[in-house]
Amino acid sequence: MNHSAQLSEEVQAARVPEHEISPLVLNRWSPRSFLDRDIPEEDLLALFEAARWAPSASNEQSWRFILARKPEHRATFYEFINPSNRVWCEKAPALALVLSKKTNAQGQVHAHHAFDTGTATGLLALEATRRGLSTHSMGGFDRDKARSILGIFDDYELHSVIAIGYRGPKDALPEALQAREQPSTRRPLSDILFEGNM
């Protein structure tokens, strides 16, 4: 079955899978240009609903999200996001801090908290793509400052801030970022898949 008709032109030009997969996976990429346009409540909350159903070791469901969609909440997030990211993410109508609980229900170290939270975040991104939204996860932020400002306890690890919104035009970005505003390629499957041993 040929799914190429369901891929955007820019994705078709940049991404050629070695095996057939859902167009949803290929169409998901991380733009920086966002429209200053509100996201309907049902669409925004559906992203976190998708994350809620991620696989979870011992069903601990370690992932947590702090959502900033009101202007005053987004302004608080800007205080700990790196300036190089603020230059583009301030137009996004929603930001979400991704964190995970490092301990399990018994108070012991939960070795899979970060892995499971990454999976939940991936499902969030796919649901966003399905709904015509874009996401861009940022590692460039001051974790200590975010922890202090938002009152986050020590047993939570802070992973990323996700910008969520509708994709904007490339020329709305600073010139230095415009060349990067395209889907990226990936390593060949042979670089990441090993059978039996490495």
From TrEMBL:
It is an enzyme of class 1 (oxidoreductase). Pfam families: Nitroreductase (PF00881). The keyword Oxidoreductase applies. Residues 178-198 are annotated as: Disordered. Residues 26-81, 90-166 form the Nitroreductase domain. Belongs to the nitroreductase family. This is Malonic semialdehyde reductase RutE. The lineage of its organism: Bacteria, Bacillati, Bacillota, Bacilli, Bacillales. The gene is rutE.
